[in-house]
Records
---
Amino acid sequence: MKTAVKIILVTGGNRGIGLELVRHLATLGHTLILSARDEHKGEKAVSQLKQQGLSVEFLPLDVSNEKSIQEAATVFKKNYGHLDVLINNAGILHGNASTLTVSKDTMEEHMATNFYGPLLLVQAMLPLLKKSADARIINFTTGMASLSNPGSGTAAYRLSKIALNGLTAILSADLRGTDIKVNSLDPGWVQTGMGGSSAPKSVAEGADTAVWLATADNIPTGKFFRSRKQVEW
């Protein structure tokens, strides 16, 4: 039986894991909306994917800007009518200061992109997600946000992703009784601009769990995954 075509929005989709996600999911036949805050880079990525015969469109979106989120939601509603899968991939990691020295400005910068952005985007897209019979919200976090095995340093990034994991758990509870499932995933240490060339995982390997969460039948909700397996928060 042919899998139903899903309308999927990927934030930060112009490079790294996000770009691989868009490419892979579009190759499976789904309709992909690639979002990025840099319009030139986003349009360039979409153009390259379209040249490969893939169904991909561009949506300008800066997840750290509430006005941009609202404008994107308005455009999305007009162009697509509903949303099946929201993949909150966009994120930043700047500096490695610990909790002992991290500045408020650095914390606020990371929270704006890594936590408030996904929260506000979910709220803006919720009416469109509710129109799907099998909606999913997928949040990219990190093993660095583990509460069961915490590490030191890089406090702003870790804490913003801990907050995003908390959002996953609470949002899944708030959406109980709906057709919307919410999960977090740790892609691992991946060969991206953030992870560096010495990372052990390819971008395809880093994207794999998100592809699975977006397309597999009967996935759970309110969980944290790594390599397609549930792990402790």
---
Amino acid sequence: MNSRRVQHSKHKNTGILFELLARQVTADTLNGRENSPAIQIIREYLRPNTELGKELVLYRTLMEATNLSEARALKLIDLVLEQRRKLNTKKLNEQKYNLVKAVKDKYPLKDFLSSKIPQYKEYASIYKTFLSEQHPDKIDVTDISSIASARFTVVEHLTHKTSNAESRKTLPESLKGQQEDLRLLTYKILVDKFNEKYKNLNEQQKVLLREYINNVSNTNSLREHINAEVPKVKRELSRRLNAIDDKVTRIKIMEVINQLDSVKKGSTVRDNQVTALMIAYQLVKEIRFITEEE
């Protein structure tokens, strides 16, 4: 009997595929694409009565549970794996293939899959845990350490104590429990409220936010945009610095100019770098107002 390696596959990970599709809905909406293909793909392939939809529920069960004792975490994993074994593997694989094909028809697949997933390690560990249970008699003996490590990662996630700061970053518990269609509708409402709240942003800030959202499907574009914008902002701030009479204000502006260099560091753009550039844009706007008024 041939053994098989337990290796993670991003395009076969139902949890990751859903996260990418949900974020793509937001990106499409912000870009004025009213009928997002991602919504249709979710509705067609991730319905609760499909094998994919059922597996997604199992992923979400493990991803959304935290603060458990180790005993409860192990029990939850056992219950989830018990349900996972009941899925029709042939149908599940066919539906995953068709879902990825549907994504490929609407979006550049390489760009779609290249987006960074904040909890990638946890999703990958759940995938490996599921895969190891699917054909336990065919697992390569050299993979035991990798499988054990994946299981430990899942346990650590389930027993992790969520801080107040972390809990504020997650969706409300009431939203997590709703059907996916309702969650997607909620995403759209949030986007509409976002657009209303930030309608007074200048064009540079809007473009930066658009690039930030589009980072869902193009990880290089945002870094290239920021690296090109930072020198422009620094030049603009430096040029207008001489028109500022207040000594304290001049010192603060110099600090901003010096700190902008750190925004260009790293191959992956961090949220605080985007925030720093947004603040710099705002500062330029305010300085323009002051100097032109004078």
